[in-house]
Write a structure and sequence with these properties.
The chain has helices at about 50-60, 75-80, 95-105, 105-115, 160-175, 230-240, 275-280; strands spanning about 25, 35-40, 70-75, 85, 120-125, 125-130, 135-140, 150-155, 180-185, 195-205, 210, 225, 250-255, 260-265. It is an alpha+beta fold. The protein has two domains: about 5-75 and about 155-280, 2-Layer Sandwich (60s Ribosomal Protein L30, Chain: A), CATH 3.30.1330.100; about 85-150, CofE-like fold. Strand 5 and strand 6 form a beta hairpin.
């Protein structure tokens, strides 16, 4: 059985958020969207995540269908990749000790944040605001929840590449093309609580460009782009939970998305293009 997934992952720079007419979409489907949480046993370093996924699907009585979207918790992927750092092995630098005093964050954890970040903008109590791989995120995505005692879990090494490989494995095993999202939780400016965010994706357009379409009154849209992957990650987050739910996978069916087996990655923008950042920098 041949598939566009037989090739290696294309580079993110080659992807577009445009919606080519040749790509298949489930947007016209009248069926209601379905979300199925898939529970698993505790995931350990160097576990085969796809084997765990297959077992979780079997236990839930689910089989992937064409154009399903699978959401995977980034902490589960990172743990399986052994992206775990034992804090007792970390020696804090003077800068990390400074962050400890300024933000009341463990200096060893601050040192890991320094190593993982592209930029550190500053911080507040318990958190450093960082830029990592184009994502504005707290503590460079490092998490001490759902981690062994005395350890922190880093972000997965290459979330979109891993998403592509999982989509390929699903095709090889079940004969269907699906989308895959690697999801994290994130706070929004001036809002209390967490929502979902996609830090990696494959198999569909993570952002769909609606510029040029018309609204209900016939006016042409000039700026609208739909963050499909983030929307679906947020929906999945409600089922995954943030504590001990042990639901690292959510299978989404009948999602409104534009599917492309070669699509990979979540487009990002520069800080200067960001509305919040751009306005606040002018103050």
């Amino acid at each position: 059985m041949s598939s566009p997934l037989d090739s290696s992952p294309p580079s993110l720079s080659s992807q577009s958020s445009k919606s080519p007419k040749s790509f298949q979409s489930s947007q016209s489907s009248p069926k209601p969207i379905e979300l199925h949480g898939l529970k698993s046993d505790l995931i350990h370093p160097n576990d085969d995540l796809f084997l765990i996924l297959k077992k979780a699907l079997q236990n839930a009585g689910q089989t992937p269908q064409e154009h399903d979207i699978l959401v995977i918790a980034e902490s589960a992927l990172a743990t399986s990749e052994n992206r775990i750092v034992r804090l007792s092995d970390v020696v804090p630098s003077p800068k990390a000790l400074e962050y400890e005093k300024m933000c009341c964050i463990d200096a060893r954890e601050a040192e890991v944040v320094i190593a993982e970040s592209d930029v550190i903008f500053g911080g507040v109590f318990g958190v450093l605001l960082t830029l990592k791989d184009g994502l504005l995120c707290p503590n460079a995505g490092i998490d001490n929840s759902n981690a062994p005692d005395g350890c922190v879990v880093l972000y997965p090494k290459d979330p979109s590449k891993s998403a592509f490989q999982i989509a390929k494995s699903v095709f090889e095993t079940y004969g269907v093309h699906i989308g895959v999202i690697i999801a994290d939780s994130r706070t929004q400016p001036l809002r209390l609580g967490c929502t979902g965010v996609a830090i990696g994706s494959a198999g569909f357009l993570a952002v769909e460009d609606k510029r040029g379409a018309v609204d209900l009154f016939g006016k042409t849209l000039t700026v609208t782009q739909i963050a499909t992957a983030d929307i679906l990650a947020s929906a999945a987050q409600a089922i995954m939970g943030e504590s001990n739910a042990q639901t690292p996978f959510v299978l989404i069916r009948n999602a409104s998305a534009v599917f492309d087996p070669k699509a990979i990655g979540v487009p990002t923008i520069t800080p200067e293009e960001c509305m919040y950042w751009g306005v606040l920098q002018k103050k």
